[in-house]
Specification:
Layout lengths: L1 E5 L6 H13 L5 E4 L10 H9 L4 E3 L3 H8 L10 H23 L3 H8 L4 E6 L3 E6 L16 H8 L6 E4 L5 E6 L2 E6 L12 E9 L2 E9 L3 H10 L5 H10 L4
Parallel strand pairs: 1-2, 2-3, 5-6, 6-8
Antiparallel strand pairs: 1-9, 4-5, 7-8, 9-10
């Protein structure tokens, strides 16, 4: 069995198309797991949803930014010093406009689709064990797993799971970790990598005879096209998103 793992597309259609084209070149997959955060930030939210839902044998789950769209919740902003305090009003205005802009470009049908997405996907595979997909970790859709996450912290994030393999996203960094017999894989971000590499990230898993072979991939696409599109559509957070696309970094 072959599973393609895509996470954090974030409304970036050119990156998604590049990844799907690359996947076809690798021979495709039996299933595609889409681990949340599909629409917010980049300028193609509805187009990305249309493309993903049209995929055969795709599994979806809800990420934290999908949840924000559905519930009206927003990422927390807490000023830790005076300079952040001075920037807080403008940052909150941009944050709220960013989510509102995305929501205005979705139909009620797409809103309903995002609303009904599950927190978790599970597959029990004979001869291998249980594969679980989440957005960030089993502790929540904002509790990410990092390379420097300690083993006690990782144990809490796995929440005594029965998984042999945990698939996750959220951090926008590709990752492989082990905790005992539990393997943790982060495929990276399709639409908004934040690890210093602009290229779209995803992973392919080949499962056979009780073994799982993992291939992490990075796929180039036209980043400048997406940045220009942000300006063309009047995206309210175009500078913030464009900087992250260009630098592939948090700031």
């Amino acid at each position: 069995m072959r599973i393609a793992v895509l996470a954090d597309v974030h409304g970036n259609l050119p990156a998604l198309e590049a990844v799907l084209s690359h996947l076809d070149e690798q021979g495709g997959a039996d299933e595609i797991w889409v681990l949340g955060d599909v629409a917010v930030f980049c300028p193609y939210p509805a187009e990305v949803l249309e493309r993903l839902v049209a995929l055969p044998r795709a599994r979806f789950l809800q990420g934290n930014t999908d949840r924000y769209l559905v519930t009206g919740e927003r990422p927390r902003w807490i000023a830790e010093d005076q300079s952040q305090w001075k920037a807080m009003a403008a940052a909150l205005k941009e944050r709220d406009a960013n989510f509102r802009w995305t929501l205005e470009r979705l139909t009620y049908e797409w809103y309903s689709f995002l609303r009904e997405l599950p927190f978790l996907q599970r597959l029990n595979l004979d001869g291998y064990g249980t594969i679980i997909g989440v957005h960030a970790s089993l502790a929540g859709d904002e509790a990410g797993i990092w390379a420097d996450t300690t083993e006690p912290e990782l144990r809490d994030l796995l929440a005594d799971s029965d998984a042999s393999l945990l698939l996750c996203g959220h951090t926008h960094h590709q990752l492989e970790r082990w905790l005992g017999d539990v393997r943790v894989l982060n495929a990276g971000s399709v639409g908004l990598p934040l690890d210093g590499d602009q290229r779209a990230g995803y992973a392919i898993l080949d499962l056979e005879d009780g073994d799982c072979q993992v291939a992490f991939h990075r796929v180039p696409y036209d980043v400048d096209e997406v940045i220009a599109r942000l300006q063309e559509v009047g995206h309210p957070a175009s500078e913030w998103v464009g900087t992250r696309l260009r630098l592939a970094a948090h700031s």
